[in-house]
Amino acid sequence: MKDTLDDDVLVYRLGTGCDLADIEEGNVYQGKVQGFATFGMFVQLNDRIKGLVHKSNVKAEHKERDSILVRVRQIRPNGNIDLEEILIQVYQVQNIERKSTTVRIADLSTKVGKTVAIEGEIAQVKQTSGPTIFTIVDETGTQNAAAFVEAGVRAYPEVELEHIVKVIGEVMMRNNQLQIEVDAMTALTGDDAVAVKDRIEKALDLRSEPEDIPLLVKSEVMEKLRPEMKKVAKIIRKAVFTSQPIILRHHADADGICSAVAIEQAVVSLIRESGGDFDADYFLFKRAPSKAPFYEIEDITRDLDFALKDHVRFGQKMPLVLLTDNGSTEEDEPAYKIASVYDIDFIVVDHHHPDATIDKYLKAHVNPYHVGGDFGITAGMLGTEVARLINPRVEPVIRHLPAVAGVGDRSEAPERALFLELVRDQYPEEACKDIALALDYEQFWLRFNDGREIVKDILNINGRTERHKKLIALLVDGANTMIEDQMSASMPHVVSRVLANDAHLFLLDVEIHAHKFTFPPPGKTSGEVHDRLCREHAGKPVVTIGFGPDFAVLRSRGVLMNIPRMVRELRVELPGGGISGGGHLVVGSIKFVEGMREVVLEALIKKIADAQVQQLA
Length: 617
Ligand code: MN
Hints:
Layout: E1 10-14, E2 28-37, E3 40-44, E4 50-54, E5 67-75, E6 81-85, E7 92-96, E8 115-127, E9 132-137, E10 142-147, E11 164-174, E12 177-187, H1 190-208, H2 220-241, E13 246-251, H3 254-273, H4 280-283, E14 285-290, H5 297-314, E15 320-324, H6 333-341, E16 345-349, E17 364-366, H7 379-390, H8 395-398, H9 401-408, H10 414-422, H11 429-446, H12 452-458, H13 465-490, E18 495-498, E19 504-509, H14 522-536, E20 542-547, E21 551-557, E22 559-560, H15 563-573, E23 580-583, E24 587-591, H16 597-610, E25 612-613
Parallel strand pairs: 1-2, 1-7, 4-6, 10-12, 13-14, 13-15, 15-16, 16-17, 19-20
Antiparallel strand pairs: 2-3, 2-5, 3-4, 5-6, 8-9, 8-11, 9-10, 11-12, 18-19, 20-21, 21-24, 22-25, 23-24
């Protein structure tokens, strides 16, 4: 750097409100001596900016409040400014007005190469082996800001998750992604913080509001559920816009998968559209199947374990948990209780008969029973409509999912036919049945994994229709072969009774008369047996019980049972039965202790015999 300057040099005077972004290295500024230290002298450039003139760069004697000219040698990554004193007699002064008005994150792409100021909330703090990466959210978007002190050392340790900050830095392109290289970051406090937080909150609230779009089909029940579906969509959109991780748990059957995948498509595309890391859709969104048709302690424990680790390791927020085809019954309560210790927010999209006791744990709950509907409106139908509200642009790739879900869950609601009609050209009913079976079969092999990409091929979401068709043909063939094996072993062992209410009851011991630990598992085996017996006894009320040593799976046609209520009653009536369970009104399961099996089954059958039967066409 030159030590002498020409006479016509420009000296800048910083106006009030100017900050770091208004200063340039190499320029000369008018300042005021603020104080002294052993290593040099502090100089104020305006009311908020000060720098240090190291003693080696001090050229004259000074006292406090002396006017002084300084040149900016360097602005350090932590915002510290190195100055040197300049002695010149003749110069021009130019006033600098504040130019770094804050920029909205959505506008950063037009500012590459420029130094800007942004204000926002810290949504994540991730320490890399190089810089510290702060994810910042404002009312328009999400952006990463990299701050560097030393490799692997946490920059701005005083700035924490959910702080409101002002960041000044240069807008850069890194690996084709925008990023801010931080010059200075300050956590705002008091009124400043409140004002920014309010502004962001209000704007985010508006931005999260779903578009008002009509349903895919005409449905009175779903129309009544629209306000609650919009509420769910809004909570999810807000989570995406604030970089809150989302965990989506769903029942591991075709209906549950359709529901969850529809929402997955909407959320993942919204995450990608709203900026942040290129792989944000992977660490901010997780889909996981639950084996039981409820959120088990095992599930919450696993989710909580991962969430807490991510919180500590990657500075992530605690997640929002969404349950679909799952979550509305008292079987879920133990998991909710655990989650409530950690203030985890839950939303539920389900069509199981809900227990009112669990609503206190939920932020929102879409359930057809709340508006006079029933399980015929399946989770896949509801999930797809919620997905469209989250991000309407995904509709073309998910509009067949409700039809698949409807046949998968054997819906008898009029909506089933409407959703099938909607996609009849590309996915006739037989194709939907095949897809549903392929989903069930593949999920059996996937076990606890979500199979994100395979499932997309099964549902033809990737648009590779040829591969989709090959895969479906193969899976359907595999599933049917195994089902036939199972049926030829099981059907001869079905025992029948006619009950007092004229219902035909069929019993099968799946423990000894079915292959174990293979496809179809006991629940589906009982379902297949039930379907065959229903066909054999057309027009008759039919109940099928597939039982093992300590469980029974129930299915009914034309018998008006309420399985969750029967389970609750048996629990009271048979104190030593170790009874639990639930499910839908007419499709469900019950667990008990092995030594009480005969007693429990007989008591259960007595209740079925007391149930009303429906006149079938
Ligand atoms: Mn379902």
